[in-house]
Design brief:
The chain is mostly helical. The protein has helices spanning 2-11, 18-39, 47-76, 81-108, 118-126, 162-176; strands at 133-141, 147-154, 180-186. The protein folds into two domains: 2-108, no CATH class; 118-186, Alpha-Beta Plaits, CATH 3.30.70.1350.
């Protein structure tokens, strides 16, 4: 709707109250800038906070651009600048929300969360004493702040004891941000690999 209105104003220019645009946009810069600052700290760990931060930051940037355009219109009477800024606003919104949309879809589909390396996790697990193979390794997001992991560890010598498994779980949490990990120990005497595990194809 904004694009359609902007194109219409480019084809049929209309008067623009430059001073009013400047004043209102400047208020928007202050309010949205302060709101974005409040969300800045937690936006890297929480997808919801990141969404709020991006929304406020984009609004602040847009308001700043609109305020500048209001001043320019006030002193030059370039009415075409108003619809051009509207198109700029649309572009900023699309670009700014694309990454958020991508991460949200990944979470909805239980995909591997951004920043998580399955290979690094597999290498760590495979390097543990007594582990000869790792299969059925799956990682997904439990929420916007927590990840989960499940894996089978092939240990021919048998279960190493709860203390050893607990130590692995702690490392998975601290080094790889896996807040919940489920590890199954296999002796390797039968084939447990699921059909979705292609790590050895």
């Amino acid at each position: 709707m904004i694009v359609a209105e902007a194109i219409g104003r480019l084809m049929n220019p209309a008067p623009v109250a430059g001073l009013v645009v400047f004043v209102v946009a400047t208020v928007g810069v202050v309010v949205n800038g302060f709101s974005a600052w409040l969300f800045m700290r937690g936006q890297k760990e929480d997808l919801n906070i990141r969404g709020a931060f991006l929304h406020m930051a984009a609004d602040a940037a847009i308001s700043a651009a609109v305020a500048i355009s209001g001043l320019v219109i006030l002193y030059t009477n370039w009415t075409w600048l108003d619809p051009v800024m509207s198109l700029f606003v649309v572009a900023v919104v699309v670009v700014g929300t694309w990454g958020l949309l991508r991460d949200s879809v990944r979470m909805a589909l239980d995909a591997v969360p951004p920043g998580v390396s399955l290979q690094d996790i597999r290498d760590y697990l495979a390097g543990q004493p007594g582990v000869t193979d790792v299969h059925d390794l799956h990682v997904w997001a439990l929420s916007t702040t927590g990840n989960a992991l499940s894996a089978h560890l092939v240990m021919p010598a048998g279960h190493p004891g709860d203390e050893s498994i607990d130590a692995i779980v702690v490392t998975l949490r601290e080094r790889f941000s896996m807040q919940h990990a489920t590890l199954q120990v296999d002796l390797g005497t039968t084939e447990h690999r699921c059909a979705m595990d292609h790590s050895h194809d």
